[in-house]
Design brief:
Length: 416
């Protein structure tokens, strides 16, 4: 029997995913069986149900919609789940990933129950942390957030390239501002995974004053972030990527570290980590300089990489759209950057790998190149939340085959 609290969850599915008639009845039946710990009749196992829900029902509907509208629907649906009691646990039954000792990671002063996180840009305002923590992510980034709210670039600004399993976006840091995010994170009742706040500058702020914007974000969000990510690599804010080079990077990171120290002195507690997210569109000399500056600045790690402006090897007409390309075509380039960063730092500066990870093999490739953790965005859109469970199970298998007992033994294995 449906209870009233269950009804809220089912309404969420039926309304938000626009299920009708038979489909809505199937969703209700699957939910009830999962809630009661049974398998729905005729459905072989739980993974089958989750895949069925996304690939056969949600994805076809979502992919018929404008990509940004679909995005809002996902965030809207997942942001409501924290307040509807059985939903997070229902989602965990369907999509959760059980922590296992071989893949749990302690790093950056945090415990990561699984090594696969949600990359920045999907939950720009920190509204869906409980939802995303319930579908198998080991950590998540929220943002990019800027000190003041801004609307971002004109729409359309997000494009799918299905044959290439890619996205092009030129969102331009649309977000509600640092204070609004602080409000969202303050309301969170429980946190199951580390939350990294990804910070940037407002479009109207000139690069000479960028450090003030990053400092303002840290001031507003220090209490609520488990760690910070300094984003200097989005291709969609004019001139932002210039902050990656020359003296500007050194000065920016010095200002960031100074603000972090100031906040720690004020708030107390252990020092929180800062990571820097870099672009894949740099030559070897630029990368070497950048990594040297980042390593000398005292930050705790690097996220490699953000989206690319390259359009190599694409077949879909949306390749001509301006913006950052993510997904499969980015995979090799971002792995190459990880390899170079690991080599230059001799593995001393931890790396989070991002770019084109769809499978456990993709994740393992980045780990062996030097990544200690990985994160995904585009694969979640194409594969659905089941992707987390598949990557986790596959990674365990790959480690076992190579004779490793813990993921840390595989980090940077290509270099030995
Ligand atoms: C629609 C969209 C918006 C994004 N917004 C941000 C952002 O605000 N900040 C950021 O650091 N990265 C952003 N990214 C980049 C992702 O965090 C990620 O680094 C990149 O997409 C590569 O990973 P993937 O191939 O798994 O998607 C965005 C990506 C997409 C597709």
């Amino acid at each position: 029997m449906l209870r009233s609290s269950d009804l809220k969850f089912v309404c969420l599915c039926v309304n938000d995913f626009l299920f009708e008639g038979e489909t809505a009845r199937l969703v209700c039946r699957v939910f009830l069986h999962i809630r009661d710990g049974e398998r729905p009749y005729g459905v072989p196992n739980q993974n089958g149900v989750s895949d069925l829900l996304y690939k056969s029902l949600a994805k076809p509907l979502l992919f018929k919609m404008d990509p940004e509208q679909a995005h809002h629907l996902i965030i809207g649906g997942l942001s409501g789940v924290g307040s509807v009691r059985p939903v997070p646990s229902g989602l965990r039954v369907m999509y959760g990933v059980r922590e296992t000792p071989d893949l749990a990671v302690d790093m950056f002063g945090c415990h990561f129950p699984t090594p696969v996180g949600l990359a920045a840009g999907l939950d720009k305002n920190g509204q869906a942390v409980t939802g995303f923590s319930s579908i198998g992510f080991g950590f998540m980034e929220v943002g990019t957030v800027t000190p003041l709210a801004q609307s971002g670039n004109d729409q359309p600004r997000l494009f799918r390239l299905p044959p290439d399993e890619a996205l092009v976006n030129r969102m331009g840091f649309n977000n509600l501002g640092a204070e609004a995010m602080a409000g969202e994170l303050a309301r969170l009742q429980e946190r199951r995974i580390p939350v990294a706040v990804n910070i940037g500058k407002n479009k109207v702020t000139p690069n000479e004053e960028a450090h003030l914007d990053y400092a303002k974000c840290i001031q507003a969000l220090y209490t609520y972030a488990d760690l910070f990510v300094v984003n200097i690599s989005s291709p969609n804010t004019p001139d932002l990527r210039n902050l990656q080079h020359g003296n500007e990077l050194k000065e920016l990171l010095a200002a960031v570290m100074e603000e972090m120290n100031r906040q720690q002195a004020k708030v107390g507690g252990a020092a929180k980590s800062v990571l820097v997210k870099i672009a894949p569109d740099v030559n070897e000399q630029e990368l070497e300089y950048m990594v040297g500056t980042i390593a000398a600045s005292g930050v705790s790690g690097i996220i490699a990489t953000n989206t690319t402006i390259s359009r190599e090897g694409l077949s879909h007409q949306h390749a001509k759209e301006t913006g950052g390309l993510s997904g499969k075509p980015l995979r090799e380039r971002s792995t190459e950057i990880i390899r170079q960063v690991y080599r230059q730092t001799e593995g001393k500066l931890p790396i989070i790998g991002s770019g084109g990870i769809f499978t456990s093999e993709d994740a393992y490739e980045k780990i062996k190149a030097g990544a200690s953790l990985v994160e995904i965005y585009t694969a979640l859109i194409y594969e659905g939340p089941e992707v987390n469970r598949k990557i986790h199970a596959g990674l365990r298998e790959l480690l076992r085959k190579d004779g490793y007992h813990h993921i840390s033994e595989a980090v940077g294995a290509d270099h030995r």
